[in-house]
Write a structure and sequence with these properties.
- It is a single chain.
- The chain is built from 4 helices and 15 strands.
- It is α+β, with helices and mostly antiparallel strands.
- The protein has 2 domains: about 160 residues; about 190 residues, Sandwich (Jelly Rolls), CATH 2.60.120.
- The strands form 3 sheets. It has a 7-stranded antiparallel sheet with strand order 1-2-14-5-10-11-12, with no helix packed on it.
- α1 runs antiparallel to α2.
- The relative contact order is 0.11.
Amino acid sequence: MTVITPLCHSSDTLEKHQECLKKQREAVKYRLKKLAARQSEIAKKSSVIRESIIRKYQEIQAVLDEDLRITLSHLEMEERAAISALDGLMEKNCSLIQEIEQDLARLSVTLDQTDTEPDTMVIKLDVARVVDLLNRTDPISVSLDEVKADQILSLTNNMLLLICSQTPIIKNLIKSYSSEVCLDPETAHPKLIISPKGDSATYTNTWQQLPDLPGRFDTTLNVISLQGYSFGRHYWEIDVTGKTYWELGVTYPTIPRKGTTEDCWLGRGDESWCVEFFDGEYTAWHGGVPHQLPFTRRFCQIGVLCNFPAGLVTFFEADKMTPLFSFCAGTFTDCLHLALCPGHDHNGTNSKPIVICNAQSRTSDFGLVAPQKSI
């Protein structure tokens, strides 16, 4: 006997599957809605922060403008007083000239009418009158308060120095996140020479006889820091002066280190983020995706900021803190290490080391995790 499976059983299964798919669709739609709401929330928060900062800068400018107005009004008042005083002295001199002209006219008439000698007493009085006026109208008697002016200039210069010491504000803020690191020689490719202090890596064409440790890069010219960080904000500056090729960034300790797999290169896999300088061009890398950067000038120092709360890795031109590129990872899934690649020497054009510019150590309370010697 042939048993026929009821169609209702198959229909029930399909209906359940259909209902499951509908629930999944609704869950994804709800997540999409939440993501859009979060996007809008972040945009609004960013706008509020931006407007608040703009207002503060405007308030600073208003304070400076008002102080400048008051200072100039004082100087203008003193200038007007001095000019007015000189006008008065000049008027007295003009009046005396008119009197002398009148006396000369009268004397000329008298001389024409008589041959007698003029009254010597009158002449003596005229001379005394002139001497007295000249003494009372000495230009040196009227002057600006130059000592006060010098004090104003000194105070404004001090204000300028203070402002310069506090700006760029972002530079001072980011530098406050500086964390000291040193390179782990046990991770360095055998063609890299790591300085005794662990603050520089130099390419050598000689393959050094080093232990083939599990954590050592054997193909890519990489080295990572001994220290790793799991939370907080951390900033490093790397000196790349005189180099024509380099790569630098941050990486999880799980980055592949053996063989020719592309993920061993910084930024080519999901474990690392980097900026590369090669052949005069800057490129940001993560997950194997290149981002060409619109810069042509050869920078001397590159800043790297790792921001765990925001899930950001940001690269800067360190002198003026000009942002080069920022990666948003959302949430980091592991601790991060500084990673460097000084590159080949390129026939001597890239022989200089890549150097970490360490700041005073602040790592004890800022997410430092135990050094990891290998993956």
